[in-house]
Write a structure and sequence with these properties.
- By secondary structure, the chain is an alpha/beta fold.
- Helix content is 37%, strand content 19%.
- It has eight helices and eleven strands.
- The protein has a nine-stranded mixed sheet, sandwiched between helices. Strands 7-8 form a two-stranded antiparallel sheet.
- Strand 1, helix 1 and strand 2 form a beta-alpha-beta unit.
- Helix 5 runs parallel beside helix 7.
Amino acid sequence: MKRYNRVLLKLSGESLMGAQQYGIDTNRLSDYARDIRAAVEMGTQVSIVIGGGNIFRGLKGATQGFDRVKGDQMGMLATVINSLALSSALSAVGVKNRVLTAIRMEPIGEFYTKWKAIEHLEAGEVVILSAGTGNPFFTTDTGSSLRGIELEADVMLKGTRVDGIYTADPEKDPTATKYDRITYDEIYRQGLKVMDLTATTMCMENDLPIVVFDMDTPGNLLRVLRGEPIGTYVSNSLSEQ
């Protein structure tokens, strides 16, 4: 039984590297494609935003002398490359999908509009939303929040390398403890780095819950969609879930 009808799945570009230091690990990509196929077969409408940090990150480029606007535009193009790779992997396992871009670049992808994206979702296709918001100074986390709100998703699923939100970075602090549920207010009070502040505020103000979970473990996406208690559930009230 599925818990959510329509979801926005946020994937990090870095997760596509797998064990590599750069680029795209095809095995990791295939694992993602199979999990997404199972979600579609469950009857869930899946939209996806994927970052570009495995190829180029605009903010890092700015610290190395790139003009910030051009650096962010390069980062947007990196997300398009990743989106095309995911689209190809989904097609290879028989999943119909569309790449929509926030910047016009036909025939690479269709230009994004809310109504076009929803039409494809309701037709059973996976919609991959690339090029961020189409504007500099906005992260793909903010792009995910925006698209999730626009597309009236039930939840944003933030797939990461860790299994939820902790009191501190578990990769650096062995005493860090995991939250099963937490409110947006508590994230602000503790200064937890779940997403950037713009993205977090958008979700809070528009009452879009988030589930932060480990996407790198095959089968976890389906477990989240079934409502199993994995990851960390973020909302405006602890009583919402």
